[in-house]
Design goal:
The complex is a heterodimer. By secondary structure, chain A is of the alpha+beta class. Chain A is 33% helix and 15% strand. Chain B has 3 domains: 7-56, Uridine Diphospho-n-acetylenolpyruvylglucosamine Reductase, domain 2, CATH 3.30.43.10; 58-172, Uridine Diphospho-n-acetylenolpyruvylglucosamine Reductase, domain 3, CATH 3.30.465; 180-286, Enolase-like, domain 1 (2-Layer Sandwich), CATH 3.30.390.50. In chain B, the strands form 4 sheets. Chain B has a 5-stranded antiparallel sheet. Chain B has a 4-stranded antiparallel sheet with strand order 11-12-13-14, sandwiched between helices. Chain B has a 3-stranded parallel sheet with strand order 1-3-2, with helices on one face. In chain B, β4 and β5 (69-73) form a beta hairpin. The longest helix of chain B has 21 residues, at 266-286. Classes of the chains: A alpha+beta, B alpha+beta.
Chain lengths: 166, 292
Amino acid sequence: MAAKRQVRLTVNGTQYEASVEPRMTLVDFLRGELGLNGTHVGCEHGVCGACTILLEGRAVRACLMLAVQADGANIMTVEGLAPDGKLHPIQEAFIEEHGLQCGFCTPGFLMSVYELLHDNPNPSEEAILDSLGGNICRCTGYQSIRKSVRLAAEKVRTSSSAPQGG
Amino acid sequence: MKPPPFEYAAPGTVQEAIALLQQHEGEAKILAGGQSLMPLLNMRLARPGILIDLNKVTDLDYIRETNGALAIGAMTRKRTVEDSALVKSHQPLLHAATVLIAHPQIRNRGTVGGSMAQADPAAEYPAIAVALDAELQAAGPRGSRSIKASDFFVSYLTTALEPNEVLAEVRFPAVPRGTGWSVMEVARRHGDFAMTGVAVTTALDAKGQFSAARIVLFGVGPTPVRARAAEQVLTGQKPSEGLLAQAAQKVNDAIEEPLSDVHASAEYRRHLAQVLTRRALAEALTRTGTGQ
């Protein structure tokens, strides 16, 4: 076993410090070491998008990064969307437009959509599809997710809680 | 699955990375964006003794323009390329190919150098490098050397890089004014690796005849495949639907043994290569000027 390494990082505004084996993926670290179980582990090879998080404000696969690589990083997970228990407009939109059924893929979708709307709160249909293309959902058939994103964009544009950098 | 154990080093400079490669020759693997290597580690298809992570080598992240030529640092993320106004204006083919790669979430991490060094035959960037006559700068213990894209891609997942060399930069020469271009591919789902794809560039002389054409296929062989016989069909001729179809037919001469797998049969890949070439040439022509 390789020697453990010390990592210091910020997740959802809270600083953490831990000692990890180099081979531990970031998603396993977030769930197993920090207890942030909102981020899901799906395919573990970057295809399904269930583990999508924001790294320095950018949506990335947490299964395709090592925890040691996140040393010094600023990360946002799905838990960061509703820090006080009050749902984010994107989450509300997913509920209102039935953007989820079993919910397994939802944390990943939410983080992809967060980046999309942060970059552009009035995205074209093409931009929406390009962003959603990186996440797989086996329940909804995607149409209700598209509707959710359009509603989320509307909500974000009119609310004061526009997505901030993660 | 979970990665097997490995040692980990995150050098801050290319020189340190090269020293680590020398020190651990044969058991080291370079980690760039990780969008290809991490899946291989997670599936235990790769078992390096040590990972040398280039993500702290921040001076390999740049896009510089000199007289229309672009030099792109190996650790530049694909998202940076996608968003770069310099790339859009000076290397539109590179920009168009970038947005075909996977998904935004992958492009946020994946790097230019990583795709080149991984040399997946179905990937867009190696074919684009060959189509645009890019040069790849390798840094090693004895200094730097420049490798032409046509010499860089040796075989399936194999490049001309020595075990102790690091890919530092990719240089794209200036594209002559009026050059037409197109990149097209067919994948089962948007963002998947292409079953077959093609990148083309075209130039017309003052008489409106092809003065140059470049056709590079991907996903049909162990490396990007340049269809020279098809290019020759075009040179000196006036564009017509019939001529493009004739050239497209000729791409088969360049395809030796296309991959045949669960995604697509060899026959289907050959078919795609022809159809895509014809369509890409037609699209490139709409963007082609008649020079000076």
